[in-house]
Design brief:
Elements (H helix, E strand, L loop, with lengths): L1 E11 L4 E6 L4 H4 L5 E5 L6 E9 L2 E6 L5 H5 L5 E5 L13 H4 L3 E4 L2 E10 L6 E5 L5 E5 L7 E3 L4 E4 L5 H4 L14
Parallel strand pairs: 7-12
Antiparallel strand pairs: 1-2, 1-6, 2-5, 3-4, 3-6, 4-5, 7-8, 8-9, 9-10, 11-12
């Protein structure tokens, strides 16, 4: 089975390094020199890490054979995968993006959308939920707001605070100020 661990961003500097959006909770184990990644699109890989370093909160990777900024630019948007023999099914600490995408998002028994993505952020993760109307809502992936994830039955249960779904939606104009001087 393949597990996505990163997405390559823009080039950094002139020596072929790239910025990386980390999609794993163990970057210190995944991005060590000598690690080979399966790449999507396949025409860009496989890629073998020859350097890994942090610049503030951004991971910078160098790969064998990628020596210039132009080489690095050809990798922009590529997805990095590792081959895994098995996933720890008893791990109650989290979920992989592929387990969450496509799950129904419910508030009580009402379906409010489907999970479209998991955005891994430095402070907390965000679920991207697409509503039936096509709106995209970012939901903090914390236990208080997402108390239940049921992969087997295909849903997540949400207990959103008031206004969370309205926060990202387009309002029909500005707040009413009629009758006020």
């Amino acid at each position: 089975m393949q597990l996505q661990v990163a997405r390559i961003g823009k080039p950094h500097g002139i020596r072929g390094e790239v910025t990386v959006q980390v999609l794993t909770d163990a970057p210190e184990d995944r991005f060590v020199p000598g690690t080979e990644f399966v790449v999507e699109p396949a025409s860009s890989g496989p890629l073998t890490v020859n350097s890994a370093r942090w610049n503030k909160d951004i991971l910078l990777l160098g790969f064998d054979g990628i020596e210039t900024r132009n080489d690095a630019e050809t990798l922009r948007g590529a997805k990095l995968f590792i081959e895994t023999e098995e996933l720890d099914e008893d791990d109650d600490e989290g979920w992989y993006e592929h387990e969450l995408v496509g799950l129904e998002a419910r508030v009580g028994s009402r379906v409010v959308g489907k999970v479209a993505a998991l955005n891994t952020m430095p402070v907390q993760d965000l679920l991207l939920v697409k509503t039936p109307e096509g709106e995209e809502i970012l939901i903090p992936f914390v236990e208080q707001i997402v108390p239940e994830v049921n992969v087997e039955e295909g849903f997540i249960l949400l207990t959103p605070p008031d206004g969370l779904f309205e926060l990202n939606s387009d309002q029909d104009g500005a707040p009413e100020t009629e009758g006020k001087a």
